[in-house]
Amino acid sequence: MTILKDKVAFISGGAEGIGRAVVERFIREGAKVAVLDLNQEKLAQLQARYPDDICSVCGDVTNYSDNHKVVELAVERFGKLDIFVGNAALFDFFAPLSRIAPEKLEASFNKLFQVNVLGYMNGVKAAMDQLKQNHGSIVLTVSNSGFYPGGGGVLYVTSKHAVVGLIKQLAYELAPEIRVNGVSPGATDTEMKSVEGISSKARPLNHIPDFNENAANAVPLKKIASPEDHTALYVLLAANEQSPMTTGTVIHSDGGWIAR
């Protein structure tokens, strides 16, 4: 399949989880990919597996200059940039406001929002000129927590609602040159990590006892998603030929929460 043949994408948080699955799907669809991630070891593994198709920067999405480095590297290595996928995110281990210590609230808020919201803005800002030039597209990872309560704590749920607003505003601001959309995954079998210090019980999501079983039973389709289950929607929204009139839209990939 070559839906993204000759396209170049920048994917943040692309070394593991949903991000890595999107990187690998984009490569199978014919794209070249520039990846930004903090995990040097997993970036190196990805680079070794796809030496001709990937370039990478070990860096922080909250740092604009790291995002800019990825764009410069993509253009240097592959000649242009057509797609930005914002994916890096932190969780809050379901912490309600009542259980966040007052002295930790500001720092926890700042760290989580810097990654989940500012990180996306940095990527868009860094990629914007190239995307305008090439009539490109942006796809941001949301979450069912961007629409419903209970899928996280107060910080995560609020941050993902902010991402929905960001998609709508950017779709308005960047039209007609750039389309902006989102994919909203539900519970997924990944090691998504929480912001440090928010809960003494925090652990990667799929390390929670019975997480997969409970997540599957919570939705009509009765299964928890694998990262790969979401990737076709990123391809659909990234490709101008496949979704030329779609912008400001979020597609749900969550097992049917809306039908619950």
TrEMBL record:
Uppermost EC category = oxidoreductase
Q: What EC number(s) does the entry state?
A: 1.3.1.87
Which InterPro entries has this protein been placed in? NAD(P)-bd_dom_sf, Sc_DH/Rdtase_CS, SDR_fam
Pfam family membership, one: adh_short
Record-level Gene Ontology MF annotations: 2,3-dihydroxy-2,3-dihydro-phenylpropionate dehydrogenase activity
Q: Does the keyword Oxidoreductase apply?
A: yes
Name the domain of life this protein comes from.
Bacteria
Q: What keywords are assigned to this protein?
A: Oxidoreductase
The UniProt entry's sequence similarity note says: Belongs to the short-chain dehydrogenases/reductases (SDR) family.
Question: Sorted alphabetically, which PANTHER family does this protein's record hold?
Answer: 3-OXOACYL-(ACYL-CARRIER-PROTEIN) REDUCTASE (AFU_ORTHOLOGUE AFUA_6G11210) (PTHR43180), SHORT CHAIN DEHYDROGENASE MDPC-RELATED (PTHR43180:SF3)
- The protein here is known as 3-(Cis-5,6-dihydroxycyclohexa-1, 3-dien-1-yl)propanoate dehydrogenase
Q: Which organism is it from?
A: Amphritea pacifica
